[in-house]
Amino acid sequence: MSSTTDKIKGAANEAMGKAKQGLGDVTGNDKMKAEGAAQELKGKAQATVGDAKSAVKSATDKL
Known about the structure:
- This protein is mostly helical.
- It is built from two helices and no strands.
- Helix 1 runs antiparallel to helix 2 (30-61).
- The protein is rod-shaped, with a radius of gyration of 15 Å.
- It starts with a helix and ends with a helix.
């Protein structure tokens, strides 16, 4: 995947995770809150991978 794709998917997973957590709070569903937290972390990891790919590409382009 490209760095941009990783960043977009990461942002989407973060947003969905936050939404699930909010919905879990409102409904009192602890399982949904946990799933949301996990999805948010997955999104942050994806975004970090995208940032790392961008940094590597940028560094190699300078060579």
